[in-house]
Amino acid sequence: MTQDELKQQAALRALDYVIDGSIVGVGTGSTANFFIDGLAGMKDRIVGAVASSEVSARRLASHGIRLFDMNDVDDIPVYVDGADEINGGLAMIKGGGGAQTREKIVAAVARKFVCICDASKRVERLGRFPLPVEVIPMARAQVARELARLGGRPVLREGFITDNGNLILDVHGLSITDPAALEATIDGIVGVVTNGLFAKRGADVLLLATPGGVQTFERT
Ligand SMILES: O=C(CO)[C@H](O)[C@H](O)COP(=O)(O)O
């Protein structure tokens, strides 16, 4: 079974969590794309969706799914998104697609975060995947110095501008022993918009697609 087939299996299982008559929070990435395509098959049962990126918004719209602005929405029962890494406590690294800021905003409002992944994303310890940090352009060098002081090796994502008009520094080599503490520390650096650690607001449910089937894990 290919990685894409596994991603699709996890994504389609997440359709079971969609609540009729609700506005669905939708993530970004190749796994989220499979979810969007599946959601199209039940679009008459939902009110619409809020997207965590322009690219997901376009894909939702292409299926005729009604889009809502986050500022007009105060209840999102379920948010479905992928991850770059997820640990046993359902803390994640996200932002491989550079969308972590909007993803965090939608996830913050959502009552339930359903993470959809193929088995390669499940790790014992977060940090092999470089941590994406969204940075205000004029603060790039200053933030890079601070991240280096934390033991990381920040690398500018060349040619990439976020949906918010900012830059991404991908930070290699961080030792992430306490994801929530590091998330707060990095967010405290002046000029950082958000970082890709989702520990304060981790997933509530992980749908992990393995060759043997989709396994469900719930936050305890
Ligand atoms: O955080 C993300 C985008 O910012 C994605 O969820 C993450 O990069 C996983 O992507 P994919 O489903 O393509 O493996």
UniProtKB/TrEMBL annotation:
Pfam family membership, one: Rib_5-P_isom_A
GO biological process entries: D-ribose metabolic process; pentose-phosphate shunt, non-oxidative branch
Pathway where it operates: Carbohydrate degradation; pentose phosphate pathway; D-ribose 5-phosphate from D-ribulose 5-phosphate (non-oxidative stage): step 1/1
Keyword annotations: Isomerase
Coiled-coil portions: none
GO cellular component assignments: cytosol
Catalytic activity entry: aldehydo-D-ribose 5-phosphate = D-ribulose 5-phosphate
Domain of life: Bacteria
Active site, UniProt feature: E103 (proton acceptor)
EC category: isomerase
Positions of substrate binding: T28, G29, S30, T31, D81, G82, A83, D84, K94, G95, G96, G97, K121
Entry GO MF terms: ribose-5-phosphate isomerase activity
EC number(s) per entry: 5.3.1.6
Subunit structure: Homodimer.
Stored PANTHER family: RIBOSE-5-PHOSPHATE ISOMERASE
Recorded family membership: Belongs to the ribose 5-phosphate isomerase family.
Function recorded in the entry: Catalyzes the reversible conversion of ribose-5-phosphate to ribulose 5-phosphate.
Identification of the protein by name: Ribose-5-phosphate isomerase A
Organism encoding this protein: Zoogloea ramigera
The gene coding this protein: rpiA
